[in-house]
Amino acid sequence: MYPTLVTFHVIFAGMWLSFFVIESSLRNKIEKNDNLNKVSDYLNFSNTFGIISSVGILLSGILIVMMNNQYGFFDMSSNHWLATKQIILVIILIMTGSLVIPNSQKVRVKLESQELDKNDKELNKLFRANQIINYMVLINLIFAITHRFYG
Questions:
Q1: What is the rounded distance in angstroms from the CA atom of residue 99 to the CA atom of residue 122?
Q2: Could you give the dihedral angle defined by the CA atoms of residues 5, 146, 92 and 48, in that order, rounded to the nearest 10 degrees?
Q3: Which end of the chain is more exposed for a tag (fewer CB within 10 A), N or C?
Q4: What is the pLDDT of residues 70-82, one digit of tens each?
Q5: How far apart are CA 85 and CA 13, in angstroms?
Q6: Residue boundaries of the structural domains of the chain
Q7: Which helix (H) or strand (E) covers residue 91, if one does?
Q8: What is the pTM of this model?
Q9: CB atoms near residue 98 (< 10 Å)
Q10: How far apart (Å, rounded) are the C-alpha atoms in residues 53 and 130?
Q11: What pLDDT, on a 0 to 100 scale, did the predictor assign at position 151?
Q12: What pLDDT does 60 receive?
């Protein structure tokens, strides 16, 4: 079961990494082409991919730590790379709950009532929050790949 969990963890990480590329592309199309028709696609994509990949990473990561006695939760004395990844994931989840979800809801309401424009404050906050989250995911991926070299 453990190798299967690790495989799923890697698949969810790959999804999150592909989110980085696709989200950036959609955001650029909206910003550069002033194409607000793509905002609905952006919201649907980020909602679906965000939920699947973040919940998948969270659950598989918790189970992996519980099944492997070499790992622990937020333990900086050993496996500091893992504790750092866990802290970053908590920050990502907090940002998602406090920035991404509320701003997505506001943007969707404005989009449906046709009050949304390219310079919308909530839309730009959403773009910025997703961009920061994407960079934190990338940092976590780098920790996952390189921890064997420094630990």
A1: 9
A2: -50
A3: N
A4: 888 888 778 888 8
A5: 12
A6: 2-150
A7: helix 80-95
A8: 0.85
A9: 11
A10: 14
A11: 53
A12: 94
Q: Residue 113: helix, strand or coil by DSSP?
A: coil
- pLDDT tens for 6-62 read 999 999 988 888 888 888 888 888 888 767 778 888 898 888 888 888 899 999 999
**Residue position matching structure tokens 């921890």:** 147
The mean pLDDT value of the chain amounts to 88
* Dist CA 150 CA 143 (whole Å): 10
Residues 74 and 87 sit within 8 Å (Cβ to Cβ): yes
Cα(72)–Cα(4) distance, integer angstroms: 19
120's torsion region: left (phi>0), alpha (psi -120 to 50) or beta? beta
Q: Which of 88, 60, 64 is nearest to 74 (CA)?
A: 88
27-56-64 Cα angle (round to 5):
135
The CA–CA distances, whole Å, from 119 to 26, 29, 102, 111, 133 equal 16, 14, 18, 13, 21
Q: Which amino acid is at 110?
A: K
